[in-house]
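Because discrete structure vocabularies remain unfamiliar, we reproduce here a specimen of the format, pairing a chain with its fold in token form:
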Amino acid sequence: MIRRHAAAATALRSYLRRACSSHAADSNDQLLGLVEVPKPRPGSRLSTKDFAFLKEPTPPIPAASLPPPEAVLISKAIRAYATDFDGSAERFLRRHRDFLTDAVVVAVLRSVRAPELCVKFFLWAERQVGYSHTSACYDALAEVLSFEDRARTAERLLREIGEDDREVLGRLLNVLVRKCCRHGAWAEALEELGRLKDFGYRPSGATYNALVQVLATAGQVDMGFRVQKEMSESGFCMDKFTIGCFAHALCKKGRYSDALDMIQREDFKLDTVLCTQMISGLMEASLFDEAVSFLHRMRCNSCIPNIVTYRTLLSGFLKKKQLGWCKRIINMMMKEGCNPNQSLFNSLVHSYCNARDYTYAYKLLKRMSACSCPPGYVVYNIFIGSICGGEELPDPELLALAEKVYEEMLASNCVLNKVNTANFARCLCGVEKFDKAFQIIKVMMKKGFVPDTSTYSKVITFLCQAMKVEKAFLLFQEMKNVGVKPDVYTYTILIDSFCKAGLIEQAQNWFDEMRSVGCSPNVVTYTALLHAYLKAKQLPQASEFFHRMVDAGCLPNAITYSALIDGLCKAGEIQKACEVYAKLIGTSGTVESEFYFEGEHTDTIAPNVVTYGALVDGLCKAHKVVDAHELLDAMLSTGCEPNHIIYDALIDGFCKVGKIDNAQEVFLRMTKCGYLPTVHTYTSLIDAMFKDKRLDLAMKVLSQMLEGSCTPNVVTYTAMIDGLCGIGESEKALKLLSMMKQKGCSPNVVTYTALIDGLGKSGKVDMGLQLFTQMSTQGCAPNYVTYRVLINHCCAAGLLDEAHSLLSEMKQTYWPKYLQGYSFAVQGFSRKFIASLGLLEEMESHGTVPIAPVYGLLIDNFSKAGRLEKALELHKEMMEVSPSLNITSKVAYASLIQALCLASHLEEAFGLYNEMVRKGVVPELSVFVCLIKGLVKVNKWNEALQLCYSICHEGVKWQGNNSFDGG
């Protein structure tokens, strides 16, 4: 895989170096360049034996996780004799009834899945002597019965069960109610309760407890009281957990006196756990004085507050931004030996930093070690990011504090993330601490931080604004210091550097200045700016600048056309690049293009190896590898010998489109021409073979790579780890990660992210969370993609609180506010991987607030889980991030509206609908269906009919500019 700038840019740099060789700078100056040649790390030499474990067969799935063999036989028989269950199927089952266990029954139900067959088998099993269904069996049958067509099929089957065995039906109906409760669907749970009573059954104590819990969680306390009254009349009492949930919900509504009366009626004694739950509810209701009074009441009732009580109070005050109260609680709890945990410490430091109370925030940071939770990656980024992340420079005292914290951070082996490193260096440059700024970047590089265009841009911009350009461009400042007027070569170096940093406008200013002082630009100067405009996809400006160059009498040369072709390819204008090439070789015919000129010197410009290299690379990146291969033959026919860059581009191109055999042919051709394969060549082949699941072939290439004394780098290891994860070999991927560390190759953020994604896809989200923590402690800062991958997998696994915690960490470490788009966060990841996360579409619609889609993901999942209050809280929080942008996904809006309608919060549902329309988000038909159902549910028939009328007769614009007009 090619890991270098395009050939045209390489030639341009060498041209500049030759042009300015008479002004060479002192090579000992520490600001000559940020990126150093990596020094070889100590460690034993790699051999094929080190990777032998990759060839080991994957261990079989543990027997404990497989269904019992009897269950497999029974399932096949039931499906085979489906039409004759009472005859052939029962005869077969009787021969195997000695093997009947609850595990076998559950496995059969999950395998067969057909509701009617499952019911027949379930009833047959219950009739067998010596066997009785457990709760797991009832849960499995309830899962089968709620698949599809629940309203008709399940009702009929339930009646059949009742006719056969009323006791079984009673237990099953109770299980169905509790199943709805577990999923937070309180409305459906009440419907199931009604059906249970219609069938003539009485709810069990466990069912009543589950109902009260789900109603309390949903905030339906009045309904909860009615169920609790019915429960009491039936002779059942609430258990401890249910009382805690109900008391919390009542306090959350401000009805703490009702909660106390309820506890007294249930003849339950207040204890520390119950009091803590009530305090939590009072805090959520913003009843701060009442919560603290209740804390004192606990002591009067001999309930000693514990660490959970204090953390609940502290979290509540922090969430409501009551920082004065937080200080009092912190003092109170620490006197009693109760300390905040690390997450709470991080949030406290974040809040006090936002309040600009840095003195107290620093005290908390120092206190963390004494509380057995030493400061880590997150809190250091919070502190330094808060001081240095603003537009204006911090006060000298604050910057000095940031420097002090930075030194403590280094001693703790932690790192700053990409955004905060750049901001810290920018602030130091702003107070003329250039050496310090440079040293920070150098130290961070040693810890795995790689400066990108953004980092270079900020540091270079401040150096120039401070008129300390001798530190950024030594030759240019040296000439100014001695009073020598800068010449064309000096300005050209400056313009070229600004273009490479993406500062085209500033480069254009230098270009205008050099002309104003009588210094005429040369072909290299024009070429540098022309190439920059093309790379930035600013084709009109590039075309205009090309004509200015020709009109000024500065004729393009071979390097200019090479840069033209390279820039057009990078801008995605492959056809125009081919037109320029066709003009150069004289086959353009009547083709017209704005990027070549007619003149007597045109015929003397012939494509060289750099020109061909740029076009081959561009065609390969556009997946036109067949055309690129034909171009290779064309250049050979002209006597132009390809170099290893062209061969590498072709090999990488064939690998990217899955044509491994063609890539190997080019590889053999390359070696026959005397070019030694590089680590990039081998990495392209290994990556493609892993993705094609040809592990044996990949191992052969790896062996050849090691025999040729070519050591794998972090990109090679990452490709292998990603490939292993792609074939479900996450355990081997973990071993490979461990091995690369032992061999002195530090994994980067792409490596860790690929492995975290692989673990998540294998269902090992907990291991992914552990690896995420490990990467931060080992000096590798996670980026946006890492957070997004892990949040996706946490949501899929139902770990919503962990996902929300990760979102909070993202906010605290300043990703959302100061990362202007995704372009730097996604560097190093393949386009296919980024597309699999849906980030390509997000980059277009959410370029300035990259955290917004994560909010949408969490809102959708919290809504579906029935945690409506948390979903609304996240929605409100997201709107505060950027209220002017359309940053909520259609799915998130639909989920919220559906949940609100189900909870009969119609006013809020319609408010969200109006907000959705205002922001230009086109609603799906399902949104209107939810609103209509919600209106019908509360007997607002007129409003429901009006909404139906507006849909049918006024026309509603749907996605894709189609409209529904009542057809």
Observations:
- The chain has 53 helices and two strands.
- Residues 166-182 form the longest helix (17 residues).
- Residues 578 and 615 are 8 Å apart (CA to CA).
- The chain has a mean pLDDT of 76.
